[in-house]
Amino acid sequence: MEDITSELLAALLSASLDRKQRALQVLKGETPPAPATTGPMLLTLGKAAKLLGVSRSTIYRLITRGTLPSVEIAQGRARVRRADIEALARDGAVMPEGGAL
Predict the structure, then answer these.
(1) pLDDT per position as a tens digit, 87-101
(2) Could you tell me the pTM of the whole model?
(3) What is the C-alpha separation between 59 and 61, in angstroms, rounded?
(4) 42-91 in CATH: which number?
(5) CA distance 26 to 23
(6) Tens digits of per-residue pLDDT, 30-71?
């Protein structure tokens, strides 16, 4: 047991601040942040709706309310950032269709 403790202590002392924070999260039983996903950075409103499990009209409402920022790529053509969609899903801010919003 002492060998493991010594090895952990040595690794901790030489680790970067970021790695120390992630190690602390794991030791506390917290889930470390998920790695960045791959794919397009901007999504169509339909694709965003599909990822969240909601309708396109719900996506439009979120944009209108200011809950979800959008990017206008051309006149009348909007996209949303993948990171914003993932944050909504992670935070549980949007309920799938059939639930309250």
Answers:
(1) 888 877 676 555 544
(2) 0.56
(3) 5
(4) 1.10.1660.10
(5) 5
(6) 765 565 667 789 999 999 999 888 999 999 999 999 999 999
**φ, ψ dihedrals at 49, nearest 5°:** -60, -45
Instruction: Kindly report the backbone phi and psi dihedral angles of residue 42, in degrees, each rounded to the nearest multiple of 5, phi listed first.
Output: -115, 135
Helix (H, G, I), strand (E, B) or coil at 67: coil
DSSP secondary structure code for residue 39 in this structure: S
CB under 8 Å, gap of 24 or more: what pairs does 75-79 form?
Answer: 78/45, 79/42, 79/43, 79/44, 79/45
User: Domain segments of the chain: what residues?
Assistant: 1-33, 42-91
How far apart, in Å, are the Cα atoms of 63 and each of 53, 57, 68, 99? 16, 10, 5, 18
Contact by Cβ (8 Å): 81, 41: yes
